Amino acid sequence: MTAPGGVLPDDVVDAAMVRALRLAVTAQEWGDTPIGAVVLGPDGAVLAEAANEREKRGDPTAHAEVLALRAAAAVHGDGWRLTGATLVVTLEPCTMCAGASVLARVARVVYGADDPKAGAAGSLWDVVRDRRLNHRPQVTGGVRAEESATLLRAFFRRRRAL
């Protein structure tokens, strides 16, 4: 199912982003910022998925990406390396999540909306492509960006009205 060069077809990535957006919506049920993440294997199969659970777990590291990467590592690779995997997330990863992607050796990071306040895949920092690191995933931003941004704006608009 992978295209030449190991890149998954656009329709597979788009379907994963739709799934991540659905997960993001559910995060609001427990008061979390609506961010969802899906990890795809090299063949395009879903290895793991998660929504933000910082509020739910009382854990500052319970970002959707970290939870999804942890779950994917339990079912793929050698226990922690996610070689050939693609991380699909609704919002540009922060420094922690970008670093986790690099350390997990994912092949590609795909995200929806840019995060000019905390993004670490090109907006504010570029952790994932830092030449000083030993692994640099391919990055694709802007997939269903408006849908993700609209969801986030509505969430924060409601939160500020409280």
UniProtKB/TrEMBL annotation:
One of its GO terms (molecular function) is tRNA-specific adenosine-34 deaminase activity. Binds 1 zinc ion per subunit. PROSITE patterns: CYT_DCMP_DEAMINASES_2 (PS51747). InterPro entries: CMP_dCMP_dom, Cytidine_deaminase-like, tRNA_aden_deaminase. Zn(2+) binds at H63, C94, C97. Residues 11-124 form the CMP/dCMP-type deaminase domain. Keywords: Hydrolase, Metal-binding, tRNA processing, Zinc. It comes from the Bacteria. The active site is at E65. Homodimer. Belongs to the cytidine and deoxycytidylate deaminase family. Catalyzes the deamination of adenosine to inosine at the wobble position 34 of tRNA(Arg2). This is tRNA-specific adenosine deaminase.
